[in-house]
Amino acid sequence: MQFFLPFLILFLSFLVNLSGVKCAAVLSLERVFPLNHSLDVELLRARDHLRNARFLQGFVGGVVDFSVQGTSDPFLVGVTGSSALLLYFTRVKLGTPPREFNVQIDTGSDVLWVTCSTCSNCPKTSGLGVQLNNFDTTSSSTAGLVPCSHPICTSQFQTTATQCPPQSNQCSYAFQYGDGSGTSGFYVSDTFYFDAVLGESMTANSSAAVVFGCSTFQSGDLTKSDKAIDGIFGFGQGDLSVISQLSSHGITPRVFSHCLKGDGSGGGILVLGEILEPGIVYTPLVPSQPHYNLYLQSIAVGGQLLPIDPAVFATSGNRGTIIDTGTTLAYLAEEAFDPFVSAITAAVSQFTTPTISKGSQCYLVSSSVSSVFPPVSLNFAGGATMLLKPEEYLMFMSNYPGATLWCIGFQKFQGGTTILGDLVLKDKIFVYDLAHQRIGWTNYDCSSSVNVSVTSSKDFINAGQLMSSSSRDMLIKLLPLSILALLIHTLISIHAFPNFVT
């Protein structure tokens, strides 16, 4: 029987693909550098500043603003002085035979792109502790160039400067960023591999053809080896995002979820499907936006609403409230920042020693921050509240005799934009339900297991539980009845015809 199990898993995977049933694709998350180190806030601000410049740029001369993560200034480790980049990334396999690439997850962009083997001026080594790989179209037997007549190419022409070079029918792209960096290349269609959830303690390798970018030229910060990674995994809402492509083929639902672990070495889980948790609350997305904009309505500190005009958070032009996994800290529109800091300081001034450190409002604390600092509530449309613990709006800076120094992690953003980055997003389940144009969340221990479901029409067709761990172990609780029936039938057949088993 034990010799038959691998074949059985592959057989079930084939049946799932053949039946057109949607499945959950699961990717483990890792973080290049842990959070339990003292950080240089100026470098964190500089990193986010460069990203935000790219994030908010408009279209210039037909060249799209395509936000890229993992390419801006690193933070400094206070003890050793070495540098690294704080980011969450996952590994994807592309091509035949499959090759593995380290790519940063980016909810602010659409395209999955990796460095091409023919790339000029591209980093050859990385200072982030990951091995750099590149994609070679000639080494993959399933790779195909995307022609200009391809629907994805023609649909992107007006919005991403996709074009065909002279005397070529090869769909290409060129992205320029606000900080002066950029990348260009061409689109490729090839096999994308992922783990499909089948049932009790079982997953199967599955695959699908997707279109992704092959970068042949990079400039600016993208060329710096100390910040280099293989590419970017865009999770935006556009047609070119992998989640949209897999959904359009009926492979996965139009929903993805993540749980980013904040402490220790980080990590977490990323699911092309829906994480289920009773405490999740949902709020609608602002329609027709290139990023994940939400209707933030008010902020409360210790249960008291701050005197902030709700219009401060309204979406118009470059203004609004954005969820972004590529921003390290969190940023408040300038009209909301001062009331927020003033309220925190007033609430803790009797129990801490307020001080200014490197331009940030900080506090010397002689006890645990959770016993001194008040909770913060971000209130969104639809009655959804995001409750922040002190560690989710403060940053630990250093130890002093009998005290610790903590600083406000939120930064002032001049320009009317509020960006909720990893400081806020960590230690929470986030569900991006694109089919229903809403985002949900709940506080969660991302080192624990998560319940996953996949829906087709109105019915759950797959449900299970995934473990968030560096070893990527998965434990599935429930089997779909149809697959369970097939499994039982197969096992009966094995007992009835034992000679078929070697």
Question: Briefly, what is this?
Answer:
With 502 residues, the chain is of the alpha+beta class. The protein is 17% helix and 38% strand.
Give a description of the structure.
The structure is a single chain. The protein contains eight helices and 33 strands. It is an alpha+beta fold and 502 residues long. The N and C termini lie close together (9 Å). Strands 1, 4, 5, 6, 7, 8, 9, 10, 11, 12, 13, 15, 29 and 30 form a 14-stranded mixed beta sheet that branches. It has a five-stranded mixed beta sheet with strand order 16-19-28-20-27. Helix content is 17%, strand content 38%.
Strand residue percentage: 35-45%
Low-pLDDT parts are 2-21, 31-38, 53-86, 157-162, 455-465, 467-502
Give the mean pLDDT.
Answer: 74
Rg: 24 Å
User: Helicity, in percent?
Assistant: 10-25%
**Form type:** globular
Provide the structure class.
Answer: alpha+beta
| Cα-to-Cα separation, first versus last residue | 9 Å
Helical run tally: 8
Largest sheet: 14 strands, mixed
Strands, total number: 33
